[in-house]
Amino acid sequence: MNLSLAFEPLISWPLLGLVLAPLLLLALVGLWFRQRGAVFRFAALLALTAALLNPVLLDEEREALKSVVAVVVDRSQSQDIGERTKQTDEALAGLQQRLGRFKQFDVRVVEAGKSEAAEERTETRLFGALESAFRDVPPSRIGGAIMITDGEVHDVPGGTPDFNAPLHALITGNDQEKDRRIRFENAPRFGLVGKPLEMTYRVIGTNNEAGSVDVRVSVNGEQVSVERATIGQAMPLQVTIPGAGRNIVELAIDPEPDELTDTNNRAIALIDGIRENLRVLLVSGEPHAGERTWRNLLKSDASVDLVHFTILRPPEKQDGTPINELSLIAFPTRELFVEKIKDFDLIIFDRYQHRDVLPILYYDYIAEYVEKGGALLIAAGPEYAGESSIARTPLMSALPAMPTGEVVEKAFYPRLTELGQRHPVTRGLDGSATEPPHWSRWFRTIGVENPGGEAVMKGADDRPLLLLDRKGEGRVGMFLSDQGWLWARGFEGGGPHVQLYRRIAHWLMKEPELEEERLTADGRGMMLEIRRQTMSDDPGPAQIITPSGKAMTVKLERAEPGVFLGSIETSEIGLYQVGNGDLKALAHVGPVNAPEFTDVVSTENRLKAPAEATGGSVRRLAPSSALGNLAGGVTLPSVVPVRSTGAATGNDWIGLRTTDDSVLKAVSRVPLFGGFLGLGLLLLALGSMWYREGR
């Protein structure tokens, strides 16, 4: 029962004051001068005033509201270490049992750290979860919060939390834990391919551990060195980036005895390899309509340094032209093909024929250059079928096909072979999906016999048009037509000459993306995506090893000719190993070196300041052998409801505040000066005054 007195005046307050003020003044004057009947007049005035004020006795029926208590449970990956998950589950069950005894508490359990988003798994964000739990709760109804965590929380506010209630933290793990970890101090995002890259790293131990430890350095899964590092000091590291595109540099140390986890015994750096400008030597034979096609393409590529020579006049031609007018500079044959031939990434012979410009021995040097890893492209014209063909030199050992001497002059549409539809050089060429292809015709094909390598395009009468071959450690390409300039000039709508020529050049220079057999993997969010390029019909499933060492398989589905894709949703952040056949790849899922694994030793220090600022406490969940109230294998403090001004913590108890808020359910009204009772009192007062005045 909640009784209260309210006034519901019969007239407005200003009018009421206007009526009663003069009467009250007259009554007070009468009392002051002790006039006869002044007391009765004053009593009558009071009765009139009470009647006009209309006092009402209110009896309110209210229901007390509950205080909202949040129990925030840390479910991040660091909580999977040791017995922490078990301690967390036991503590949660014990708290729910204790809190269930108090009807004045509305308990909300919030689990944090298991979001599907990768960025939310990399950090333990308990205060964000706490804010969400109290978003619809008025500040006066917040009873407090209890966090069950290992103490490694990454969103601790700088000041006091935004609610005026005690915050308590129950810490899993124990105070004797030890862990050793490694991290990169300085890791550039980019590096030049084949050049040393300077980096720094640090090995960190618990409790100011000293000494030294061996660090294994791996690049793209291959161990390159073992370094000796002093624990606690920044150490220099120099690695060589092996290839263009993404490279993974991994540092690893052996776990020590009784270490918490070896998850943070590895550190990853993702470095994009950048090639220095590729050096290309283009040697053109006698002038022809498409002579500048290759030159214009290579000059337009900012990543290519081009050296171009055109043989305008063979040595046997004697027409009396002065030597100093034959060229701007002499053709430096010895410098290019003997002294500096290894400096070139690609040599192109564009309709070139042997005319003693190059000594016959130099062709042997070129063949040796290819055998040892160089790249050679032959853009063949009618000269390749003639008596002065370079196929009749020592270069023949590096060529994928020998000429028959036949030149086919016949209109045809260049088409992809079945092999070419899968090969990354020609796969998906613009215009190749229709029949006939959506590009212009060509009119000349050079006949060859016993073609080697892979014929990825065909010309007139299904003759080979583009051959790609491997010789030793190097690569050779042969274009058996000189009609590509028709595409460049827009004849009959032209064709994808830039796309095709650039792919050929980059395949010859071993661009990873154009490898026929290639396995790549990448992490997008918490998805691991796998891409397999192959010339086979079915590469089979991919094998995966997770960061924790678990093995699984993923089926690869055909996405387009020569490309198979697969994906799998993961739950672990870290480095995944992917294998298919003889190929292997590495992929990192989630942010690199996530804070969740930077430090996994349980601690009370991070939550101590915000807990004490709210009147709460931080304490460890002691083992079951400790004194106190037990809940399974942990010791929990007692839960005590406290008033808003009382203490909220003690040696073996934690306090949660109760609220004074309530909700109104019903109101009973009893008018005190209404009905016959009020009328009788008013008439009695007026009658007494009239009677006294009549005396």
- The helix tally amounts to 12
Strand order of the largest sheet: 16-15-17-18-24-23-22-20
Question: Looking at the chains present, what oligomeric state does this protein adopt?
Answer: single chain
- Spans with pLDDT under 50 lasting ≥5 residues? 624-632
User: How large a portion of the residues is in β-strands, by DSSP E?
Assistant: 35-45%
Please state the CA-atom Rg, rounded to the nearest Å.
Answer: 45 Å
- What percentage of residues falls in helices of 4 or more residues? 10-25%
Mean pLDDT: 83
Q: Main beta sheet: strand number and arrangement?
A: 8 strands, mixed
Number of strands: 38
Structure classification:
alpha/beta
Please tell me about this protein's structure.
This is Threonine dehydrogenase and related Zn-dependent dehydrogenases. Keywords: Membrane, Transmembrane, Transmembrane helix. InterPro entries: Class_I_gatase-like. It comes from Mesorhizobium ventifaucium. The protein has about 700 residues and is an alpha/beta fold. Helices cover about 20% and strands about 35% of the residues. It contains 12 helices and 38 strands. The strands form 10 sheets. The protein has an 8-stranded mixed sheet. Helix 1 runs antiparallel to helix 2 and helix 2 runs antiparallel to helix 12. The longest helix is centred in the first third of the chain and has 20 residues, at about 15-30. The chain is elongated, with a radius of gyration of 45 Å. The two termini are about 50 Å apart. The model is unreliable at about 625-630 (pLDDT under 50).
